[in-house]
What we know:
The chain is α/β, with parallel strands linked by helices and 185 residues long. Helices cover 32% and strands 28% of the residues. The protein contains 6 helices and 7 strands; from the N terminus they run βαβαββαββαβαα. The chain has helices spanning 10-16, 40-58, 84-94, 129-136, 165-169, 173-182; strands at 3-6, 23-26, 63-73, 76-78, 98-109, 112-124, 158-162. Strands 1, 2, 3, 4, 5, 6 and 7 form a 7-stranded mixed β-sheet that branches. Helix 3 (84-94) crosses helix 4. The protein is elongated.
Amino acid sequence: MKIILASASPRRRELLRYITEDFEAVSLDCDETLPEDIPPMEASEYLAVLKAKAAAEKFPDCVVIGCDTTVICGGEILGKPKDRAQCIADISKLSGRTHQVVTGCCIISGGRVSSFSEVTDVTFRELAAAEIESYADTDEPYDKAGGYGIQGLGSALISHINGDFFNVVGLPVGRLFNEMKKVQI
């Protein structure tokens, strides 16, 4: 069966290639509004299911993978920063603290829907204001949840992680591989 990755993320495309070269990445518009009462730790999986179902409607005879990544600090979801000020505020919140990166994944195959979330703890060093401002002046933070990229310049902000590195990039490769085997892809 053909595999569809319902994501525009170049990072997810690159990571899925560690599992298979045989897939097509598609970008679909779907309403990503979260219910007001959803617990932050469940948000990524909820959105991954929405994305996968939207793609499965267009590609019903394919295996569809939907994903979403959130950064959660102190019970608050930190999205992609809209501007420099928000980037500085978000990175300041992360400074010297441990937060969670949650990637939700959904696999739809033959009408069966399977979803899961992978959680990685990421700890930032205590950052000086000048470091935060310097990072905010780069192009890197603005298309990433939480306003940083662990695989780029943002790696210098981090003291350590506990969990799957690839999950922080946006796709828990090992877990997804094992879940795909369960649905016999």
